[in-house]
Amino acid sequence: MDFNKDLIAGKLRRWEKYIDNYRLPRWEDIPDMGLYMEQVIMLLKQYLDYLPPELKEEQFITAATINNYVRKKIMPEPVNRKYYRKQIAYLLMICSLKQSLSIPILQHMIPVDLTEEELKKTYTTYVDRQKLAASYFSKQVRLAAAGILGHEYESEIATDSTEEIIYLSAIISGFARLFAEKLLMLEGKDLDNGGDITIRS
C-alpha cells in the first residue's frame, strides 16, 4: 500500500479536532414535533456527521432500513407515519452502535418497550459514554500515529506506518466487539450458571 505521510498526518489532525468537538444531540435537542421519513433521514445524516464523506455517500440509513427496524420491533413504531423524539433517539443509538454490534445484540441492549423516562435516561447516558469513548479513542490514535504526527511517544504501538495503523485499528475493533458481546452474555449469570446464553434474533 502507498500512503502520503503528510496527507495522512493532516487528515488525522483534522479528524481528531472534529471528534474532540463532536457530540450527539442532547435529549431535549431532538425534535419532538413529528417528522416524516425523509426529514428523519436528513436529520440522522446531520447528527451522525462524524462518518467519513465516502460512507455518507453510501446511504448508511434508508427508509427501507428504518421500516425494517420497525417491522422487526428493534425500535418503536412511528405515530401516524411521523417520528418523534423517542423514535429518533432509538435510531441515533442504533445507527451509531450498528457499526460495531449486531442488530440482535442491539435489540437486547436497548429494548423496544422502554418508557419515555427510561429511554431518556438510557439515551442521555449513551451520549455521555460516546463522548468519553471518542475522547479516549482520539488519544489512542494520537499515541498509535506518533511517528506520522511527529510526536515523541514511548509506546509499543506507536508507528509511522499507515498500513500498520490500519491493521491495528481493525484488530482492536474486532477485540472490542468480542469483549462487548462476551460481557453482554454474562447478564443474569453467576458463578454457578455462567454458561452461554442465547440472544433473541
Q: Could you characterize the architecture of this molecule?
A:
The protein is mainly alpha-helical. The chain has one domain (5-184). 58% of the residues lie in helices and 0% in strands. It is globular. The N and C termini lie far apart (39 Å).
Any descriptors?
mainly alpha; 58% helix; 201 residues
Largest sheet data: none
The mean pLDDT is 87
Q: N- to C-terminal separation?
A: 39 Å
Number of domain modules: 1
Order of helices and strands: HHHHHHHHH
Helix fraction, binned, reads 55-70%
Rg calc: 19 Å
Quick rundown:
This protein has 201 residues and is mainly alpha-helical. The chain has helices at residues 5-21, 37-47, 53-56, 63-71, 85-97, 103-109, 116-144, 146-149, 162-184. The chain has one domain.
